[in-house]
Amino acid sequence: MGKSDMSESSKSNEVKQKYLGNKGLIILISLLSAFVPLSTDLYLPALPMMSEYFHVSQAVTNLTLIMFFVFFSIGTLVFGPLSDKYGRKPVLIMGLVFYLIGSVMCVFSANMTLLIFSRIIQAVGGSAASAVATAIVKDVYSGKKRESVLSIVQSMTVISPAVAPVLGSWTLKVTSWRGIFVGLALIGVASLIGSVLLNETLTSYNKGTVMQTLGRLGVVLKNPGFFSMLLIFSVVNIACMAFISASSYIYQEGFKLTSEVYSYYFTLNAVGMLFGPFLYLKLAGHLKREFIIDACFIVMIASGILVCIFDNSKPWVFALALLPSTIASCCMRPPSTNLMLEQQQKDTGSASSLIGGFAMIMGSVGMVIVSFNWPNQVFVIGALTVVIGLICGIGWKLAYKKPYVRHFSEIDMEQCDVAE
């Protein structure tokens, strides 16, 4: 398919959104993409309370996060290819029904075992939303326009971690932790309504059997350009998710802050996440994308070193030292996601599911690492940031020079309008 054809296909798919329109489609994609931060960050302030309520340790309570990410990853790897065979809309609706069931089960969980099981069901359903959201972006948009939409979507997506902990903290003032899961159920209802109004975006269906469809994951992974970029940018999530899962304990138990004050500190970090994609949009008009990603890895390393140096001095010092790393990791997300998508011209659902699945798997690794009984979790977060920044930064410089990696220069040649 030629570049002009891709552009026309993009415009054609936008017109097909009879009920949502282009702006409504972007909002829906953003909401679907936000299922992970919404399903985790909203109840972060309640983690210590839940440990006390069920009389279990931090490690056991963290299983509600870890198992969510593990099964979210598995579900993403399944639903992405299935959406190539059956279409985005039916897979999305089925997943959201599961998410709703899991959310309601969380509300009525009588013990930690049932809560963890309910979170698994919630994760499996939510994974369909994440896998399909990225696939829809590839279906509808191309070139510069896709990169612009990815920046908008990811900026809107990270508003949820900025708002979620504060909302969670306020919710805990008027109800128990169960009320937070009621809120997640309502989010699921809103997403389901939007998905029902969605017009199918997939135009070319996979004609193979279910097993052949799932086998396309292996085919995509054999693409060296895609796999190298996938591995490098997925590993970055180890450091990011390590902080997110440990943040409530660091601020509330380590720095002795209330859940409400903790939510404000977490919001500062989330504002950095929000600022990152917008910063990329500004920089991309003046600097090469390769240079921007190089700089982001350098900032990550420097930020991690600052966290290690200042250690447990003050909560605001820790927050400000880690903030540059947060901004940098989010600044590189739009170009890295677009670069990964550009490596694979077919099997969009499989590629999208691998992007989301690997990110969740690596995030789970980070959550497991900080779940150990470390005497100084702040130093661990800083050290992880330094190590991950070094490993991924070096890997990026080596892989990007390989001839099998399709470079940004080819993306820039596609003259597509910036998303409105």
TrEMBL record:
Major facilitator superfamily (MFS) profile domain spans which residues?
A: 25-401
List the CDD domains hit by this protein, alphabetically. Answer: MFS_MdfA_MDR_like
Predominantly, its location class is membrane
TM ranges = 20-39, 59-79, 91-110, 116-137, 149-170, 176-198, 226-250, 262-280, 292-310, 353-372, 378-399
Tell me the domain of life: Bacteria
Swiss-Prot/TrEMBL keywords: Cell membrane, Membrane, Transmembrane, Transmembrane helix, Transport
Q: Which InterPro entries match?
A: Efflux_drug-R_Bcr/CmlA, MFS, MFS_dom, MFS_trans_sf
Mind telling me which GO cellular component terms the entry cites?
Answer: plasma membrane
Asked if the keyword Transcription belongs to this entry, the reply reads: no
> How is this protein situated with respect to the membrane?
Multi-pass membrane protein
Q: Give the family from UniProt.
A: Belongs to the major facilitator superfamily. Bcr/CmlA family.
Supply the name of the protein.
Bcr/CflA family efflux transporter
Organism for this UniProt entry: Clostridium coskatii
| Gene coding for it | bcr
